[in-house]
């Protein structure tokens, strides 16, 4: 009798565990994948709700910006740089600063076990749309600004009522608009950009969150990709409001001048 009870308890535990795993992995959220190899960079999203697969191929000869002082590299050389630097965060920074893209997974068709099974059964009913960037990112800016927030942003962020204001307290002209651009590509709603001479000069950057806004998907994205910033829960802000302040220390950290110099000379 005790053996039977033990078996029943074990079966119940397995069922509950399997149910919890299934609940956490079977979601209708878009899946965002990045593939980086000698062929360049491929961004891919699978949207179960829109029944769409979107792919954006960055050709091997197209140069992308490597933040934090590394300058510009052809996309076909990024994979070598990643292996050389042995920095697991570097690829995420490259994808975020160039495309506003934060992948869920890295690797071709790396959907995860459950979504791989789902994709196998449903792929024939999904519409596939492919875009290619074969010239410089600047010449393709209009295309990227159109398709990235529409087809590659995080749907959970797009559905949130969260707004971000960006303030530049440094001497680097255009820095606030630069930051706003790749955040908009991520799906973040930008309330406005402005200058602010009262930015704390000793900090790299500062993020002020309205009540509970740090817990939103938008808040998590900003906190993750601006990890050098000081964090503050500001009750003077409304729920759903975030403020991002930065100055010359932030510009120096990411080596923003190398970005501007390249843009001006190409």
What do you see in this structure?
The chain is an alpha/beta fold. The longest helix is centred in the N-terminal third of the chain and has 24 residues, at 2-25. It contains 10 helices and 12 strands. The chain is 39% helix and 25% strand. The protein has a 5-stranded mixed beta sheet, with helices on one face. It has a 5-stranded mixed beta sheet with strand order 9-8-12-10-11. Strands 4-5 form a two-stranded antiparallel ribbon.
Number of helices: 10
> What is the CA–CA distance across the termini?
80 Å
**Low-confidence spans: pLDDT under 50, at least 5 residues?**
18-24
What order do the SSEs take from the amino end to the carboxyl end, as H and E?
A: HEEEEEHHEHEHHEHEEHEEHH
| Strands side by side in the biggest sheet | 6-1-2-3-7
- The geometry reads as globular
- The proportion of strand residues reads 25-35%
Roughly how much helix do the residues carry, as a percent range?
Answer: 25-40%
Count every beta strand, where a strand is a DSSP E run of 2 or more residues. Answer: 12
Major sheet attributes: 5 strands, mixed
Mean model confidence by pLDDT: 85
- Structure class: alpha/beta
List keywords for this structure.
5-stranded mixed sheet, 266 residues
Please outline the helices and strands:
Blueprint: H1 2-25, E1 31-37, E2 40-47, E3 52-58, E4 63-66, E5 71-74, H2 78-85, H3 90-99, E6 105-106, H4 113-122, E7 127-133, H5 141-152, H6 155-158, E8 163-168, H7 175-185, E9 189-195, E10 205-209, H8 217-225, E11 230-233, E12 241-246, H9 248-254, H10 256-264
Parallel strand pairs: 1-6, 3-7, 8-9, 8-12, 10-11
Antiparallel strand pairs: 1-2, 2-3, 4-5, 10-12
């Amino acid at each position: 009798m005790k053996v039977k009870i033990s078996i029943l308890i074990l079966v119940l535990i397995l069922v509950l565990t399997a149910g919890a795993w299934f609940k956490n992995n079977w979601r209708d959220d878009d899946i965002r994948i990045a593939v980086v190899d000698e062929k360049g960079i491929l961004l891919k999203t699978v949207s179960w709700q829109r029944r769409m697969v979107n792919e954006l191929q960055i050709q091997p000869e197209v140069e992308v910006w490597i933040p934090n002082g590394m300058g510009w590299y052809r996309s076909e050389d990024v994979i070598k740089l990643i292996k050389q630097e042995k920095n697991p965060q570097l690829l995420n920074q490259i994808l975020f600063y160039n495309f506003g893209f934060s992948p869920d997974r890295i690797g071709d068709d790396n959907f995860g076990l459950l979504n791989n099974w789902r994709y196998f059964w449903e792929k024939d009913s999904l519409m596939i749309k492919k875009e290619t960037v074969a010239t410089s990112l600047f010449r393709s800016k209009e295309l990227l600004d159109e398709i990235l927030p529409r087809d590659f942003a995080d749907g959970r962020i797009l559905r949130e009522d969260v707004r971000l204001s960006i303030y530049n307290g440094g001497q680097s002209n255009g820095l606030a608009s630069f930051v706003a651009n790749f955040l908009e590509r991520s799906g973040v709603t930008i309330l406005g950009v402005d200058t602010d001479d009262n930015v704390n000069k000793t900090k790299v950057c500062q993020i002020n969150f309205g009540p509970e806004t740090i817990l939103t998907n938008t808040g998590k994205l900003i906190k993750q990709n601006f990890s050098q910033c000081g964090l503050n829960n500001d009750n003077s802000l409304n729920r759903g409001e975030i403020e991002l302040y930065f100055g010359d220390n932030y510009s120096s950290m990411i080596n923003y001048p190398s970005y501007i110099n390249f843009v001006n000379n190409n």
